[in-house]
Amino acid sequence: MTDPAREETQRQRDVVDLMASAHATLRDRYRRRATVMTCTLLAASVVATAFAFAAGDTKVTLLGVTLDRSAWLGWFAVATFTLTLADLVLDWRGNGRRHEDAVRQLAGLKAEYRRPLPAGAEAAARARLTGRYQSVMDTVAPIPERKFLALKAAHLRKSELSRLLSAKPGMSVRQARRALKKP
Predict the structure, then answer these.
(1) Dihedrals φ, ψ of 65, to 5°?
(2) What is the pLDDT of residues 86-99, one digit of tens each?
(3) What is the CATH number of domain 3-143?
(4) 140-169 residue pLDDT tens
(5) Rounded to whole angstroms, how far apart are CA atoms 93 and 95?
(6) Can you give the three-state secondary structure of 139-175, one letter per residue?
(7) C-alpha to C-alpha distance for 28 and 26, rounded to whole angstroms
(8) C-alpha to C-alpha distances, 76 to 64, 67, 81, nearest whole angstrom
């Protein structure tokens, strides 16, 4: 059991922790976006349906714009169709599922790193962990390069916040955040 082997195992554990946190953030972000998109589409559909059942070809004013009922209906149909196409192309719900799968795999791997290595078989256990680490890292959804540093910074802030709250259990999250911002 050499120090470089121990350091590599710790590095892998830290990477797994960071990746789990980053994927969880992306999962939540994509779920929120997908939910907002779905609610927007539903609301637009309701408004368009209401216009479809409105009587005659009366003028309707919305947000300071006055158009015939049929023109509003047409614009709502175009907007709803455009948002539906955007929803299909962006696939926020699918991205959320991919990151959810990554979180699940990484959480399982993180639990394996927490188990103590068996005495006398540490080298074999480290080799098995490294193999599992490589397997999981090869299969999880990639973190977009342009988002990685912001996600890493958020993870590090979260870790520091967690340490501070553990050291001072009576402190509120808001107080802890303020304390971390102070130089």
Answers:
(1) -110, 130
(2) 999 999 999 999 99
(3) 1.10.287
(4) 999 999 999 999 999 999 999 999 999 999
(5) 5
(6) HCCCCCHHHHHHHHHHHHHHHHHHHHHHHCCCCCHHH
(7) 5
(8) 16, 12, 8
User: Contact at 8 Å (CB) between 124 and 38?
Assistant: no
Query: Cα–Cα distance between 20 and 148 in angstroms, integer?
Result: 12
CA proximity to 117, closest of 8, 16, 9, 3: 9
Burial 94-121 (b: 16+ CB within 10 A, else e): ebbbbbbebbebbeebbeebeeebeeee
Rounded-to-10 torsion of CA 86, 89, 92, 98? 180
* pLDDT top residue among 68 and 14: 14
**What are the residues whose beta carbons fall under 8 Å from the beta carbon of 132, sequence distance 6 or more?**
109, 112
pLDDT band at residue 2 under the 50/70/90 scheme: low
Looking at this protein, which amino acid is placed at residue 111?
A
Q: Identify the DSSP state of 59.
A: E
Structure tokens at 119: 């005495």
Residue range 26-48: mean pLDDT, rounded: 94
Residue 30 CB: number of other CB atoms within 10 A? 21
